[in-house]
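Quarterly update, task 2.4: adenosine monophosphate-bound model.
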Amino acid sequence: MKILVAVKRVIDYNVQIRVKEDGSGVVTDNVKMSTNPPDDNAIEEAVKIKEAGKASEIIAVTVGEEKAQETVRKALAVGADRGIHIKVDSVLEPLAVSKILKKIVEKENPDLVFMGKQAIDDDCNQTGQMLAAHLNWPQATFASKIEVKENSLEVTREVDEGLETIEVNTPAIVTCDLRLNEPRYASLPNIMKAKKKPIEQINASDLGVDTNPRIEHIKIEEPPKRKAGIKVASVEELVQKLKNEAKVI
Ligand code: AMP
């Protein structure tokens, strides 16, 4: 069984995001970048399945600028076998990424595609669903547990009412939740070994995919700063302030 895992390079989750002065986006120069956190869970799950003898190959794929290769290299250091880097000059929308991934799926014929449930930069939660639609494959989103069966997967997902368990036939798309597993750290020897693993580079422009943006960003701005809180001396004072000042009761 072959597993393709989509990994995206995003601003590290610990970084305090700064909006550009002209409101055209966020500052990415000299900012620490990392793998999108749920994509680490996606890679970890694929590696676990391979370690259990249920997968033969893991391919990590990213769509991004030159430096996005680092994200693939990290996936190779924790257990992916080879990588694919689709080179683009600008940040693409989920629709364009999903169309590119469709081309890679058609080329590689994986049995499973693992992805993150959501990218922490655009918060779209769209790419996996769009890819499933393009391929007409079943999808299991927000997976917090995956059990591999003969020609299907049993996937537990967190929904508002609790835990839902569904079965999807393979090939399938699975988007992974942070609760799925605990991603491992790459050991130094594995980081060294990963340097020798192959990464195929493909220009997005050679895939014949329309990557034109469909969304126009009008303005990006910081959320309003929170006002400092106040301390009240009594419950009566609190109720009075909520009634007369905040006018919420
Ligand atoms: P999104 O729909 O943007 O929230 O992203 C959901 C998931 O799609 C991510 O967690 C990744 O697994 C995958 N994905 C999105 N964009 C890319 C990209 N540029 N390269 C590789 N994978 C991506």
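Highlight for this quarter: The chain has six helices and eleven strands.
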